[in-house]
Amino acid sequence: MNKFVVKxxxxxxxxxxxxxxxxxxxxxxxxSKKEFEIEYTIDISQVPVSICIIPLVTDILPISWIFDAxxxxxxxxxxxxxxxxxxKKGFINMYPTxxxxxxxxxxxxxxxxxxxxxxxxxxxxxxxxxxxxxxTHKDEMPILINLQGSDIDVNDIDTINNVKKxxxxxxxxxxxxxxxxxxxxxxxxxxxxxNLYISPISGDNYWHGFQHGIAIIGHAAPIAYLYRxxxxxxxxxxxxxxxxxxxxxxxxDNYVKLSNTEIYxxxxxxxxxxxxxxxIKYCRENNKELKLRVCFDEHNPENCCxxxxxxxxxxxxxxxxxxxxxxxxxYDDSVFKNIEREFNNKIMLGHTKHWxxxxxxxxxxxxxxxxxxxxEWIFTYKFTTKKTAKKWINKIYNAVKKRVKKYIWxx
Length: 411
Ligand SMILES: [Zn+2]
Description:
The structure is a single chain. Strand 1 (3-12) and strand 2 (15-23) form a beta hairpin. The chain is of the alpha/beta class. Helix content is 42%, strand content 17%. The chain folds into two domains: 3-266, no CATH class; 304-411, no CATH class. Strands 5-4-1-2-3-8-7-6-9-11-10 form an eleven-stranded mixed β-sheet, with helices on both faces. The structure holds zinc ion (ZN). Zinc ion binds next to helix 11.
């Protein structure tokens, strides 16, 4: 039988280290050379083991369900433990083709009940979603929680430090503080190998579809406990209309309890355009500049202004009548020629839903772009999905194949 046996939880000032043993055939999906360690920028030595175990449990729960494994623990927080069956339902409903089995064997269930304070937290990466959530809840002055080792590699110290500087700057602008968490949680799982198993049966990869949501949330447990936080916001990336599978979803996140702290999947009713308008409105009203970090280049602390996501965000800000340079994008006008060329040469495909929305906003604000030849193309361009492009390529390929066959036959 597959088992994950936690041997020891070592809590030392601001660090947690887990010692564990993995038993059974599912072992191949874990990287045995990687250790699971977490470092906080606050002292967590007073946080009980039953809370400090939560980041580990949230990280391995989905894999334990998929491979019907038993997690063996000494102790766990009562409210969190009881919430597991509730947020598990979110996964079960999301993936009807996957069986969610597994169980937890725990010796001691600990009641850590506390009266919550007025403090709230918000996961913060610096992206459009997180910035919009911060602005929406600015009056609650959420403590920003940044998890390093999620979208940025845990060993990429330069990028981590540069992003950290920007987040501290943002925290200052909103009269709040930021707590940084550095964790190797992502690296203990061998994604390439598990994806070969899970992607064909679920239609999503392990990190995006199963792991990242609750694993990220779990890392806030010691912080929630120390501050007796009322609520922690995690910004949504999608809306209901998107109809996508994703490990971070209101049907999962909103059911997680970190002892007495609740989780709120924020902004699910707003699309990326709405969130960009929310950010622009705040900057205008408060005469402030903010720095977004949206880039697909995970080793770049700045926005590269060369990737699809940078292009897309620059265009959506412009479509809404604002200057992207006031939101952390440093580029010269050659960027517009590059975008147009890449679309015309079909180098950029996909994300059609976003580009169609951006085009609609340009059309709505057409008067403002009259005579500006940098944007002329976008008013009539037909955006193509990767799927359609693949169909074209196959059609051309088959036609060529047919002709070649005919030719050989004649000969
Ligand atoms: Zn970029």
